[in-house]
Design brief:
Elements lengths: L2 H11 L4 E6 L2 E5 H11 L4 E4 L2 E7 L3 H11 L3 E7 L3 E8 L13 H5 L8 H14 L1
Parallel strand pairs: 1-5
Antiparallel strand pairs: 1-2, 2-4, 3-4, 5-6
């Protein structure tokens, strides 16, 4: 099982809560959770995998952002993952549900349309929007 599969299962089991999982030096949220945190806390979204955003909160900033999430009133669960110890829940807050439906903000914005230059569909889209801007 990959990290993304583990994150997806945790998200499915806790549909209305923001899920943050420690991955290296960041706590990561993906999909709907990442979009919600981006929209409310202005955290930068990047691509996790195709059509799914992620945000990362540095481990030394977790408490600051947890306080902001609680002030917004959203439910969350924070997990710590270590290969040798497994998955541990380290913090939970019960609040309102995350009702965000979008798993990404805009993949063109995130990846940049230039990344898709070889794709005939993206090239057509790029040209279409360039003409529209004129």
């Amino acid at each position: 099982m990959s990290f993304s599969q583990m994150a997806e299962v945790l998200r499915m089991q806790n549909k209305e809560k923001i899920i943050l999982i420690k991955l290296g030096v960041f706590y990561v949220a993906i999909g709907e959770d990442a979009v919600l945190l981006h929209n409310n806390l202005k955290l930068k979204c990047t691509c996790f995998k195709q059509n799914i955003c992620k945000i990362g909160i540095p481990i030394n900033s977790l408490e600051k952002y947890i306080e902001k999430i609680e002030n917004l009133g959203y439910s969350y669960i924070v997990y710590n993952f270590k290969k040798e110890e497994g998955l541990q829940e380290i913090k939970e807050f019960k609040g309102k549900a995350n009702k965000e439906k979008n798993r990404n903000i805009n993949c063109l914005q995130c990846k940049g349309i230039e990344r898709y230059q070889d794709d005939k569909y993206m090239e057509a889209l790029r040209k279409y929007y360039e003409q529209k801007r004129r």
